[in-house]
Amino acid sequence: MKEFKPLFEGHTAGPLYIAGPCSAESREQLLAAARGVAAAGVGIMRAGVWKPRTRPGSFEGVGAEALEWLKEARAEYGLKVITEVATPDHIEAVLKAEIDGVWIGARTTTNPFAVQEIADSLKGIDIAVLVKNPVSPDVDLWAGSIERLLNSGLQRIAAVHRGFTTYDTSPYRNAPQWSVPIELHRRMPTITMISDPSHIGGRRELVAGLSQEALDLGFDGLMIECHPTPECALSDARQQITPDELKQTIERLLWRRTPVEKDALMNFRLHIDSIDNRILELLSERMEVARGIGEYKRQHNMAVVQQGRFNELLTAAEARAEAMGVSRRFIYRIYTAIHEESVRQQLDEK
Ligand code: PEP
Ligand code: MN
User: Is the minimum distance from the CB of 210 to ligand 1 under 6 angstroms?
Assistant: First the structure.
């Protein structure tokens, strides 16, 4: 395994914070954001110059012109500045402007051809590269993108967890599925792990809670979207916070980590997460069968609830659970809840 270096030299204690607007919109907006980011004590500013939008017709960024504003922000407020790249052209422009770092967006990480082109363009250059997780919860694809960069000789690499597109993400915009970044970190123990609560939550009220959760799970830092006037933002307006809110959020965050605890605790959590995922998958599979039963009963004019059958299931489960060290009372509550949901699904209620 090739070794990672710190994302930026000079960072010592505490979480690594990156903040800034989703997009660079104008010189004034960017400089106002930079002032706020610096006032919150954050040393690295993000701003998207080229925006990958899921659908055409949305704001696609102002392009290379905004790199000049980023440089101005850096000079004025002593920040490091980073932006998103997706093509060799973007990289050429970024290198020419001597931007401090780049990130690869979630839609780009999904595509090995694009990532390889980026890795080729960055060959032999010592620059910070942040790799967002791909939109699907595919740890191999994420790790593969990082390996492509390592193969090009890059070492200042961070993985950015921004959540995953799944069927039901509520209350989040992108489901966190914490077990995925934890598994990536298990495979690459020395990589810098950053969480992006803004894109996970999709709503500014969720940012603080998700930030604390990430730090508690052992992440090294956070990337938070911050805009001087979030409600007027040209992209991701719902999830950006003001510089004051950024400052408050950071002040309230607790950094509980000690290296030893982190490793032991991370292992337990990894295990718990993967068990919880299996429970969820099994529950979803069970409900799918229940819907099939519902359909069958409808076709055969049968009643949905057949109390005798449920009582049998419950009695058997209670006895088995007790033998396995789980209380009857607990199993009774779980089974009743599962049965209730099963009936609801059989009746096809939303
Ligand atoms: C962004 O950081 O503004 C962005 C587009 O993020 P993602 O690639 O995670 O969707
Ligand atoms: Mn954004």
Answer: no
